[in-house]
Amino acid sequence: MKKMRLLGVLLLGILLVLSACGGWSSQSNGGAESNGDNSSTSKNKYVLKAVHGYSTTSTMHDLATWFSDEVEKRSDGRLTVEVYPNAQIVPVDQEIPAMLNGQVDITLSSSNALAAIEDGYYVLELPFLFDYDPKDVSVFLKDMRAFLSHENGGQQFASKLEKKGLIVLSNTANADPGVLWTTEKIVTDVESIKGLKTRVPGGLGIPETLKVVGASGVSIPASEQITALHQGVVDATINPVIYALDYKIPVKSGTLLPLTAYGNPLVISKAKFESLPADLQEILIEVGKDLEPYSDENVKNRYATVFDELEKSGIAVHYPTKEELEEWRTAVEPVYKWFTDKVNGGQELIEAVSKDN
């Protein structure tokens, strides 16, 4: 009997010690090592799954890894962002649905993809939308950044996306504007583009621009465009200069016309974001904001050597004259009318750009 009483006392002591230490173990809950405490003082660890469709050598992957590293550092390791490049988990066109159904948590998306659920993003596909100096990319970046920060511009997109279950953490700058690259002839004036079959990444605005100047757009995924150019399926493509160099697009010439802009928002599932402690939410917002100037500087640094690299790669570059630029601007004006007719609130978006100039 004495042995039984002693055993009972020992067991009670063990239980009290375990209780004081917070329980036997942490439980996994929605990607977090959690004991049920979701307060800002919680020391639980959380893991977010981030995806994108770009290679590990791309600017986009650099932005994603910088964001991941900063989040882990500023949270003292409590929050980890695991980055999966090259569309490892889901195809690029399924990233948004995968976020909404909880399969993944974060994506470094594109304005083309987000336009499918918020058509205001089509404004970024308009030609000559932002100020542009082909030799000074900061002119373009400054104007685009002002629009993305405008309450009737990028902030309007963010508000609408939040109602649909997505939160924009950052509006990153992936590259310079999309310009025209050709496999044979150099495009100079509007007449020289007529009949050109051009690869486009999708969307509606870029094909419309090509149509009004007498060319045609063929929607081809990024993973297939090099093959399409080699095989003559298309004669040209529209890509930023940095992208064309990084991916070694097989072309002979480039014409520096700002035919489109590319937005690359970093987006998180609203449900996942709201499941995190308040202090970790603040860290995500803070790092997302800091990612914007980091991405801008990244582009500027790359652009400093971009034309030397083009020359070494044997690609001829045409800088349009003032007369040619004016001709192009006049030729593409119908695209703006198309946009305002198609997109509710389209005129206000265009005005948000002009107010920032």
Query: Whole-number average pLDDT?
Result: 87
- What is the CA–CA distance across the termini? 89 Å
Name of the CATH first level of the largest domain:
Alpha Beta
- Shape type: globular
Give the total of domains: 2
CATH architectural name of the largest domain:
3-Layer(aba) Sandwich
Corresponding CATH superfamily of the largest domain: Bacterial extracellular solute-binding protein, family 7
Question: How much helical structure, as a percent, in the residues?
Answer: 40-55%
Q: How many separate helices?
A: 15
Which structural class should the secondary elements be placed in?
alpha/beta
Taking the sheet with the most strands, its summary is: 7 strands, mixed
Question: How many strands?
Answer: 13
Computed Rg: 25 Å
What is the ordering of alpha helices and beta strands? HEEEHEHEHHHEEEHEHEHEEHHHEHHH
List low-confidence stretches. Answer: 1-30, 33-37
Q: Quote the CATH topology of the largest domain.
A: D-Maltodextrin-Binding Protein, domain 2
Query: Proportion of β residues?
Result: 15-25%
